[in-house]
Design goal:
Elements (H helix, E strand, L loop, with lengths): L38
């Protein structure tokens, strides 16, 4: 699917068991510096 709209970044994982009996897993994506719209 090709689109000119900016799409949000996302990830999905399935895990039978998280380490250290964690209840949730958090993933972060960050940008350092000035953001310019293309």
């Amino acid at each position: 699917m090709t689109s000119t709209k900016h799409q949000p970044a996302r990830a999905a994982y399935q895990a039978a068991k998280l380490p250290k009996a964690a209840k949730v897993e958090i993933e972060a994506i960050a940008i350092v510096g000035e953001v310019q719209d293309m």
